[in-house]
Design a protein that fits this description.
- The N and C termini lie close together (about 10 Å).
- With about 240 residues, this protein is of the alpha/beta class.
- About 50% of the residues lie in helices and about 15% in strands.
- β4 and β5 (about 90) form a beta hairpin.
- The model has no long low-confidence stretch (mean pLDDT about 95).
- The strands form two sheets. A five-stranded parallel beta sheet has the order 2-6-1-7-8, sandwiched between helices. Strands 3-4-5 form a three-stranded antiparallel beta sheet, with helices on one face.
- The protein contains nine helices and eight strands.
- It has one domain: Rossmann fold, CATH 3.40.50.300.
Length: about 240
Amino acid sequence: MTPFQIAIDGPVAAGKGTVARLVAERLGFLYVDTGAMYRMTAYLAQQEGASMADEVALADLVEEAQMDMRNPNDEEKDGRLTTVLLNGEDVSWKIRTEEMSRGSSQVAQYPLVRQVLVSKQQRIAAQQDVVMEGRDITYRVLPTAQLKIYLTASDIVRAKRRHLQLQAKGQDIGFEEVYRDLLQRDHQDMTRPADPLKQVPEAWVVDTSDLSIEQAVEMIVAKAKILMDYAQTQQS
């Protein structure tokens, strides 16, 4: 059967990573964190001393890099949503800093970098059932996905979530700074020349401002199962 694809877009701190990971777990799908690939690009540039302003050099680095993901094994269940490997090195937590967050938004503006990463993402989704989340999945990476979702929440709710995440990691950053960075990140994501964050007409909008993670997951899993059953009927 044709692989079933769930594509989730939305702004930072809307809960995309957690929701996508749990939905994938419930359905037995592979969870693909595309945002981690842009963070890996920023991390790779830092490690290699490459200029964040050199689009061609960054695209070449990404092309040559081995980027892998897997669901965490028993030894890796330390709060991570996925295990991220860059050239064989576990960088799951090294890329989860505010510096790498800002860097990922910067490198994501480059068409050449995005082209290489999108190709890597599409190859993964062509081979198995996936839940993939990011900023341009519904229209750029998986335009024919059977279920498209735009996951969002209010600015304040998202900033509070992000602030709690950083505090849990021991990062002493004030709420005002987190809120300011979040708004700046939103602006960058929505106005970048290459594949900006946007809501496609056919996407199912899920606002998590007043929803628990479990409620959001249950809603998406239920809808996915209905669509999967329908697809099976059509293909049989």
